C-alpha cells in the first residue's frame, strides 16, 4: 500500500521518533507548524476517524495528552492545539489516521481560523434535531 506512514512504520522512510510502544509511534512532523509539532500514529493502518476502532482512538488521545505535557515541560510550550483531519475536504493529506499535537508559543505564526457562517434560527433547530437523532451510542 502506498502509505507514507506505513512506510515510516516499516522503517523504509526515516523519521524523528519521540515515542514508541506496541500500538503507536509519535514522530516530529516533517513540515512542522511550530517547534515540537508531533504526530501520533497508530501502528495499524486506519484511514481516518470513520475507520479506527474506539479503543485505539481513546488510546491515541491518551497518548496525545502525554505528549502535550511533555511539550510543555521540555520545550516550554504555553498552550497546545490538538488537531485531527478526516478526509480531503478537511485537509487530510496522509490517509493514515494521525493526531497533530501542536505546541503554541507566544507570538508564534500559527493561524487556525474559520469565518463564522450565518444560519437561520429554524435551520439551527433542524440541524440540532438531525444530529441528535443520528448519534448512536
Ligand atoms: P494531515 O494534513 O492532517 O493529513 O497531516 C499530514 C501531516 O504529515 C502533515 O503535517 C505533513 O507535514 C506530515 N508529513 C508528511 N510526510 C511526512 C513524513 N515523511 N514525516 C513526517 N511527517 C510527514
Ligand atoms: Zn498507513
Care to describe what's here?
The protein is α+β, with helices and mostly antiparallel strands. The chain has one domain: HIT family, subunit A, CATH 3.30.428. The protein contains three helices and five strands. The protein has helices spanning 4-10, 54-75, 121-134, and strands spanning 17-20, 24-28, 38-42, 79-83, 99-104. A five-stranded antiparallel β-sheet has the order 1-2-3-5-4, covered by helices on one side. Strand 1 (17-20) and strand 2 (24-28) form a beta hairpin. The protein is globular and about 50 Å long. It starts with a helix and ends with a helix. The model has no long low-confidence stretch (mean pLDDT 97). The site of adenosine monophosphate has 13 residues, from loops.
Q: What distance separates the N and C termini?
A: 33 Å
Which architecture name does CATH use? 2-Layer Sandwich
Low-pLDDT segments, ≥5 res: none
Share of β-strand residues: 15-25%
Ligand catalogue: adenosine monophosphate, zinc ion
Specify the CATH class: Alpha Beta
Give the helix proportion (percent range).
25-40%
Overall radius of gyration = 17 Å
- Strand count: 5
Note the overall shape.
Answer: globular
CATH topology: HIT family, subunit A
- Average predicted confidence as pLDDT: 97
Q: What is the CATH superfamily?
A: HIT-like
Q: What characterizes the major β-sheet?
A: 5 strands, antiparallel
Amino acid at each position: 500500500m502506498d502509505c507514507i506512514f506505513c512506510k515510516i512504520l516499516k522503517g523504509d522512510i526515516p523519521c524523528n521518533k519521540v515515542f514508541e510502544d506496541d500500538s503507536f509511534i509519535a514522530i516530529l512532523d516533517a513540515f512542522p507548524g511550530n517547534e515540537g509539532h508531533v504526530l501520533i500514529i497508530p501502528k495499524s493502518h486506519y484511514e481516518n476517524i470513520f475507520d479506527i476502532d474506539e479503543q485505539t482512538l481513546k488510546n491515541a488521545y491518551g497518548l496525545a495528552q502525554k505528549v502535550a505535557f511533555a511539550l510543555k515541560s521540555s520545550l516550554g510550550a504555553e498552550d497546545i492545539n490538538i488537531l485531527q483531519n478526516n478526509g480531503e475536504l478537511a485537509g487530510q493529506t496522509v490517509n493514515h489516521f494521525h493526531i497533530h499535537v501542536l505546541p503554541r508559543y507566544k507570538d508564534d505564526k500559527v493561524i487556525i481560523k474559520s469565518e463564522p457562517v450565518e444560519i437561520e434560527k429554524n435551520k439551527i433547530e433542524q440541524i440540532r434535531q438531525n444530529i441528535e437523532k443520528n448519534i448512536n451510542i
